[in-house]
Design a protein that fits this description.
By secondary structure, the protein is of the alpha+beta class. The chain has helices spanning about 10-20, 30-35, 80-95, 110-115, and strands at about 1-5, 40-45, 50-60, 65-70, 100-105, 120-130, 135-145. It has a single domain (about 1-145), classed as Gcn5-related N-acetyltransferase (GNAT) (Aminopeptidase), CATH 3.40.630.30. It has a seven-stranded mixed sheet, sandwiched between helices. The two termini are about 25 Å apart. It binds coenzyme A. Coenzyme A (COA) binds near residues 70, 78, 81, 82 and 108.
Length: about 140
């Protein structure tokens, strides 16, 4: 299992997971646009040529925002999410990022626990941020130690 930068050739595999996991999936074109942006970092976890998960960050000066985190349904609860997010934190810090922000559905307990294990702290709530279904967003931030 390796972590590497997301490439255009990965997008079919990414879209398969994206459509399976999210009510409002990003489009392939959306991902393509992000892959061309200098302020974006997108990575995949790959095993034997198959995409198991992916994650993206947008950077602004020494801060970053997580755009998405996903692990394919049949490979969840194996530690891949933790591998993905912790690797991304290390890479971001190597690039001089001091603070990472994200938002997550308040009911997404698995994701919240994962982020807390990796040092993210709860620092706000955005009411009715998500649609389909409507749900508040928990805002979380990780500050470099
Ligand atoms: C959130 C998400 C990325 C987590 O990925 P994951 O690969 O399942 O994460 P991990 O395996 O590292 O951890 C998940 C759980 O599995 C457990 N686990 C990890 N390895 C394990 C193993 N070998 N055996 C048993 N349990 C294990 C972890 O302890 C954790 O348990 P917890 O929920 O009780 O805290 C994934 O569930 C997902 O893609 N969800 C849908 C999309 C989503 O919600 N994205 C986040 C939006 S912000």
């Amino acid at each position: 299992m390796i972590l590497r930068e997301m490439l255009v050739d990965d997008l079919d595999g990414v879209m398969e997971i994206e459509h399976d996991l999210f009510h409002m999936p990003w489009t392939k074109e959306g991902y393509f646009t992000y892959l061309t942006r200098k302020d974006a970092m997108f990575f995949v976890v790959e095993e034997k040529g198959k995409i198991l998960g992916y994650m993206g960050l947008i950077t602004v000066l020494d801060e970053a925002d997580v755009t998405n985190v996903a692990v394919r349904r049949d490979r969840q609860r194996e530690g891949i999410g933790q591998f993905l997010v912790s690797s991304m934190i290390r890479l971001a810090e190597d690039m001089g990022i001091n603070m990472i922000h994200l938002e997550v559905r308040v009911g997404n307990e698995t994701a919240i626990r994962l982020y807390e294990r990796l040092g993210f702290k709860r620092d706000g709530l955005r009411k009715n941020y998500y649609t389909d279904p409507v749900e508040d967003a928990l805002l979380m931030t990780r500050t470099r130690l």
